[in-house]
């Protein structure tokens, strides 16, 4: 038995995934991740589940709304495509109308080329976003605004801290007995922040 999978990824818990769930009833299974695109596919919670199904030879096809849902790093995107292509599993990008493998089982070279180009675009978009953030901080400093985050000697409300999207995700994973290093990798949080979440869980229990 082999199954068709719809893979969905949103960066935060608050984001709506409806757009990506086009005709979701046409698929045997939907796998969803709530994490940053900087985390490689098979390091995500849903991605780990997907890889297990692939390795068990249970997957007939994978459909994804668009390429940047795979990641924001070209190397990660191409690694995922290579892994699935080697196992003759077609990956279909719904919004872009691309499929990595032809109906006869051969690799689709045109799709591979377009995916590479769009992967570079996704990578550039992330770099531009980070540059704009840095510029914003630099401008604030030039205007005399100190950008240091929370003021020294002040404490953030624990519940407010834990309600932040990434921290909330870390809390869920820690409660499922994930190790701190695994949580940091999946959520993109600093290990110190993960430790803080872990300590707060203990104090609130």
Automatic annotation (TrEMBL):
It comes from the Bacteria. Residues 3-144 form the Resolvase/invertase-type recombinase catalytic domain. SMART domains: Resolvase (SM00857). The keyword Translocase does not apply. The keyword DNA-binding applies. Keywords: DNA recombination, DNA-binding. Gene3D superfamilies: Resolvase, N-terminal catalytic domain. This is Recombinase family protein. It comes from Aquirufa originis.
């Amino acid at each position: 038995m082999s199954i068709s999978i719809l893979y969905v990824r949103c960066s935060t818990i608050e984001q709506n995934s409806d757009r990506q769930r086009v005709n979701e009833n046409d698929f045997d299974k939907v796998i969803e991740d709530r994490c940053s695109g900087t985390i490689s596919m098979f390091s995500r919670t849903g991605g780990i589940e997907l890889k297990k199904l692939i390795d068990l030879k249970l997957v007939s096809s994978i459909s994804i709304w668009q390429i940047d849902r795979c990641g924001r790093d070209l190397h990660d995107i191409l690694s995922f495509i290579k892994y699935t292509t080697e196992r003759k599993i077609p990956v279909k990008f719904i919004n872009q109308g691309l499929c990595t493998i032809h109906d006869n089982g051969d690799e689709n070279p045109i799709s591979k080329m377009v995916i590479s180009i769009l992967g570079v675009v996704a990578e550039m978009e992330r770099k531009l976003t980070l540059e704009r953030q840095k510029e914003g901080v630099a401008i604030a400093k030039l205007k005399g605004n100190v950008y240091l985050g929370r003021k020294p000697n002040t404490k953030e409300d624990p519940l407010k801290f834990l309600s932040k999207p990434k921290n909330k995700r870390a809390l869920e994973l820690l409660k499922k007995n994930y190790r701190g290093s695994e949580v940091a990798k999946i959520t993109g949080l600093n290990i110190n922040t993960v430790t803080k979440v872990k300590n707060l869980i203990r104090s609130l229990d």
